[in-house]
Amino acid sequence: MSEEFFHYADLHTSPEPPLLARLNRETHVQTLMPRMLSGHAQGRLLSMLSHMVRPRRVLELGTFTGYAALCLAEGLADGGELHTIEFNPELESRIRRYVAGAGLTGRLHLHIGRAADIVPTLTETWDLVFIDADKINNDTYYELVLPQVRAGGFVLIDNVLWGGKVVDSYPVKPSDKDTHAVRAFNDKVQADLRVENVFLPLRDGLLLVRKL
Ligand SMILES: C[S@@+](CC[C@H](N)C(=O)[O-])C[C@H]1O[C@@H](n2cnc3c(N)ncnc32)[C@H](O)[C@@H]1O
C-alpha cells in the first residue's frame, strides 16, 4: 500500500490524545529509533481493541517509550492493571513520567529487565498480551505467555511483516536470522490448533491471535 493510503487512513482515524501526541513527538526528537513506537493509527487500534476486550490484566513485552502501553491501558476494566517489560534502563524515567502524566501510577507496572526472565515471575492470568520486544524471540515469548492467557484471551504480535521481508519473493539471506525467525513464527501460528489468528497488514503488520 502506498504512503498516500496510510496518510489517508491516519486522517480518518481519531486523533491521538494530547499526552500521546506529546510522547510521539518527544520520542521522535529524543530517541535513536523512533520508528519502534506504534504510532497514531496502530495506537488507536490497540486502544480500540482494548476497549472491546475490557481486559483486567494486560501484559506488554517491549515498552520502548510507553506509547503502546498507554494506548492499551485506555480500555482497562475497573480495577484492571497493565504490566509492561522493557530491557533498556535508560528509558525508565521517561516511561514513568508519562505513566504519571496519564494518572496510571499504581495500575501500570513497569518491569526493567529481560522479558524471558520477568514473564515467568508474573503469576497473572492475561486477557490481552502485546508481544513487541526482540523479534527473534517471538516464539519464545509466545510459548511463555500462551499458558498464562485465559481461554478466549488475546495475544497481539507486532512487526510480523518485518518491512515486507516475510514474503516468498523477498531474497532473504541465510545470515538474516531475524527475518527467518519472523517467517517461521508466522508460519507456526498459522498452523497452531490452539488459536485463531488474523494477520493485519497495518503499518509493519500486526498479528491478532485468540486462544481457543
Ligand atoms: C518495538 S520497541 C517497543 C515499542 C512499543 N511497544 C510501542 O509500540 O510503542 C521494542 C522494545 O523492546 C525492548 N527489548 C528488546 N529486547 C528485549 C528483551 N529481551 N526484553 C524486554 N525488552 C526488550 C527494546 O529495548 C525496545 O524498547
Automatic annotation (TrEMBL):
Keywords annotated in UniProt: Methyltransferase, S-adenosyl-L-methionine, Transferase
PROSITE patterns: SAM_OMT_I
BP terms from Gene Ontology: methylation
One annotated GO molecular function: O-methyltransferase activity
SUPFAM superfamilies, sorted: S-adenosyl-L-methionine-dependent methyltransferases
Protein name: Predicted O-methyltransferase YrrM
Annotated organism of origin: Hymenobacter psychrotolerans DSM 18569
